[in-house]
């Protein structure tokens, strides 16, 4: 990591990318009933990837490896800020009903469906990062801390994170509309389910539901927001203590079914000295 | 990973984020400075906790928890800290991270081309899984307690 810190070329390039990306700003496009959102972080990511030897040749292999070594620490500031978003709402969360707390375990549904699909599609360790959670900021930080973000698990979680950022709002908006139209679930249950730990996804889903059930709009919005806060609060522990062990187990099981042998043992980041 | 090295990276990223905060969210650097200092302090405290508390919990978990406690209404100074950190835009913190991630991504582009579409499919499955999973449980519990 020392080399990464001393790599001033990287830092200057990043500063230029950041200022450029922020200057372009946020743009959103209405597509049908949903919205596609483009954020500065996406421009920075895309432009950063173009600096490599394949395209602009501004950074070398060494620079890319050194940039990668820093990502885990760079996420910490975001996590601290994230915690400060949850703290002020904690009393409201703690007061909410048992339904709200229990439905949090529904987030483990990602693992049960996601891991088998990922392994079936031929993903290896990427599956763990990609399917252990809905891959918002805390989950990315956690995978970075446990496996490192430059490995296969890191690529998996970053892939879903990016997909969620670009398509998340439109996808959740559509999904809420479709599930509401199916009529299997009560709108209040869907309102609670909307809080997956991302404000924009929750807003999209709650927005669609409110439009479908105007008489329940207030309740749907309150439950969505509360559930979203709760996901923000418990998300990291849910991943650490339940979703990740479950993912590892399900990955081994599915891997053996598909390939007839056990996968290689996972590689953890070296224990911090 | 030495604590001093972590601090160095945090300060570098903080400078980038302050720039993003200024250009994107139009918040002057001097307004955001106290909040940023608090965030750095929380991170360092989290790293020290992970290092010195023998239970194996990652530093990010400590960091989220500490930040949560410090801004819990009723905790001494919570209102001040909340007001300070509000001057640091959440999105401004994400831009530098993804810029570093972008540079690092350059070396995995071939790999990404191979896994790319699969990750997109898995993403959508993951989104559906979370949503339906939560909806099923919420539905059952709400029915049981007679809310619906």
User: How large is the count of helical segments of chain A?
Assistant: 13
Radius of gyration of chain B: 20 Å
Kindly state the mean pLDDT of chain A as a whole number?
Answer: 84
The global form of chain A is globular
Q: How many E-type strands of chain B?
A: 0
Succession of helices and strands of chain A: HHEEHHHHHHHHHHH
Provide a count of the helices of chain B. 6
Arithmetic mean of pLDDT of chain B: 89
* Strand-pairing-aware structural class of chain B: mainly alpha
Assembly classification: heterodimer
Q: Could you list the spans of chain B in which at least 5 consecutive residues all have pLDDT below 50?
A: none
Characterize the main sheet of chain A: 2 strands, antiparallel
Characterize the main sheet of chain B: none
Q: What portion of the residues of chain A fall into strands of 2 or more residues?
A: under 5%
Structure report:
The complex is a heterodimer of chains A (273) and B (148). Chain A is built from 13 helices and 2 strands, in the order ααββααααααααααα. Chain A has 273 residues and is mainly alpha-helical. Chain A has a domain at 77-259. Chain A has a two-stranded antiparallel sheet. In chain A, strand 1 (27-31) and strand 2 form a beta hairpin. The model of chain B has no long low-confidence stretch (mean pLDDT 89). Chain B is built from 6 helices and no strands. Chain B has a domain at 3-88. Chain B is an all-alpha fold and 148 residues long. Chain B is extended. At the A-B interface, helix 1, helix 2, helix 3, helix 4 and helix 6 of A face helix 1, helix 2, helix 3, helix 4 and helix 5 of B.
């Amino acid at each position: 990591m020392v080399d990464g810190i001393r790599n001033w070329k990287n830092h200057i390039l990043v500063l230029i990318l950041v200022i450029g990306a922020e200057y372009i700003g946020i743009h959103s496009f209405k597509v049908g009933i949903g919205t596609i959102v483009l954020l500065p972080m996406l421009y920075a990511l895309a432009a950063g990837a173009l600096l490599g030897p394949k395209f602009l040749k501004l950074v070398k292999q060494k620079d890319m490896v050194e940039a990668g070594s820093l990502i885990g620490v760079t996420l910490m500031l975001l996590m601290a800020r994230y915690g400060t978003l949850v703290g002020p709402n904690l009393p409201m969360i703690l007061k909410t009903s048992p339904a709200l707390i229990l439905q949090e375990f529904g987030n483990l549904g990602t693992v049960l469906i996601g891991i088998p699909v990922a392994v079936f599609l031929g993903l290896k360790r990427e599956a763990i990062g990609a399917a252990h959670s809905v891959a918002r900021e805390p989950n990315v930080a956690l995978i970075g801390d446990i496996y490192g973000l430059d490995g296969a698990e890191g690529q998996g979680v970053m892939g879903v994170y990016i997909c969620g950022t670009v398509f998340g709002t439109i996808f959740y908006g559509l999904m809420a509309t479709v599930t509401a139209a199916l009529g299997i679930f009560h709108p209040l249950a869907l309102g609670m389910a909307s809080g997956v730990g991302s404000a924009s996804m929750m807003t999209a889903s709650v927005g669609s539901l409110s439009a479908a059930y105007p008489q329940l709009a207030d309740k749907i919005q309150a439950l969505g927001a509360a559930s979203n806060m709760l996901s923000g609060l418990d998300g990291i522990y849910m991943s650490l203590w339940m979703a990740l062990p479950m993912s590892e187990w399900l990955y081994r099981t599915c891997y053996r079914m598909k390939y007839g042998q056990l996968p290689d043992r996972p590689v953890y980041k070296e224990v911090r000295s | 990973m030495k604590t001093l090295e972590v601090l160095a990276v945090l300060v570098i990223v903080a400078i980038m984020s302050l720039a993003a905060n200024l250009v994107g969210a139009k918040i002057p650097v001097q307004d955001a400075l106290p909040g940023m200092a608090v965030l750095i302090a929380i991170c360092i405290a989290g790293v020290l906790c992970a290092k010195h508390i023998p239970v194996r919990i990652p530093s990010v978990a400590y960091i989220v928890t500490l930040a949560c406690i410090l801004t819990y209404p009723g905790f001494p100074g919570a209102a001040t800290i909340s007001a300070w950190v509000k001057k640091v835009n959440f999105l401004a913190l994400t831009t530098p991270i993804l810029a570093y991630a972008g540079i690092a991504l350059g070396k995995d582009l071939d790999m990404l081309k191979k896994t790319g579409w699969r990750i997109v499919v898995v993403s959508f499955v993951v989104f559906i899984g979370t949503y339906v999973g939560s909806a099923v449980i919420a539905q059952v519990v709400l029915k049981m307690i007679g809310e619906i």
